[in-house]
Amino acid sequence: MSVAAPHKDLPRTGVAALLAGLKIPGEIQLPNGAVIPVGIGEPVYRVIFHSERALRTPMTEMGVGRAYLSGDIEVKGDFGALFNARQNLQEKVPLRQKVQFVYDFIRTATKMNAKAIGDHYGLDDEFYLTFLDNRYRFYTQGLFQRPDETLEEASEHKMETMSAALDLKPGMRLLDIGGGWGGVTQYCGARGVHVTTLTLAPNSARYIQRIIEKNNLSGQVFLEDFLDHKPEEPYDHVVIFGVIEHIPNYRRFARRVWDVLKPGGRMYLDGSAAVEKFAVSSFTRYYIWPGTHTYMTLQDVLAELLYHGFQVLDVVNETRDYELTMVEWAKRLDSAKEELIAGWGEQNYRVFRLCLWGGSHAFKTNALQAYHMVVERTSSPGPRPSIPRRFRQFLGSLR
To answer: Is-annotated flag, keyword Transcription regulation (predicted)?
Structure first.
């Protein structure tokens, strides 16, 4: 791909030429210090190229991302506005990465889950808590009743919505899959609900255990994969916030949820979603979400839950909520820039900056969606068709 450069000092190919061809008003600073205005209107950003090589950065997500992480490219001003150029970048997934993904997907899921979670959540708690809400510390979307609400208010609405959907009452037993930093334990435990939390992150387990002990809550936390969890008795309800992205085998997931729930028990699930399964960019899979992280495909999750004897009570689009959440996370991350770089290094700060601003843009443009659903376990296990049966059904549906 090439873009005609409107300025004689810019190369005709590469990311600098791409920026120059956009309508977004901004500035390009060359390695010699010269500043070239682009677009029409008051500049909202400045992209600084520190070398001639940087000017010719390949117009791929991986190329641009790596140039930014290495410091070859610097961005000042409205970082989020630049993601409007993303649609003009090429996506080239290396063959090696494709092979690695297939290998990870077919090998033992629980081992892969633990490694992937450790890679993304392995930094200290304080790193994440600089940008998450300070009430329940959710690493998933809040629910905004108004765009100008605080992140803390949105997190409160999320808990209120979940509690009402599950009709939680004191004495109930709730399973929290992937407990994060204990928001569900904190909220539900204070209301007399016994929360059992499963997490694969040791720092998360320690954090939640401290919440239980400090507040004298009825709850427990296990460092265990949900796919391996076998409770002594079924739970009243299940909640899973932003974890389905780490469990792409929906058939196995639905079967396990059926096994851990009482008849009539409900599950509240939410997550980020894409129209096509496995549609994750090579940069995202390499630097942000390694392993088999996959945005939820709503249609496939619902199909497996229906096949496994659940009835669907509610499905709600929360794409706008996730956009607002990620914008607030990104702003808080940028406000804590110096602290984050001093404590965890420049590259970690830049990786998360790309993740959060890029994510907010993806939700804004509907490249990603977000949903929550509520399902209820019936008394019938459902047809649970095998792979051969599904294939026969597919052939039979052809006209």
So the answer is: no
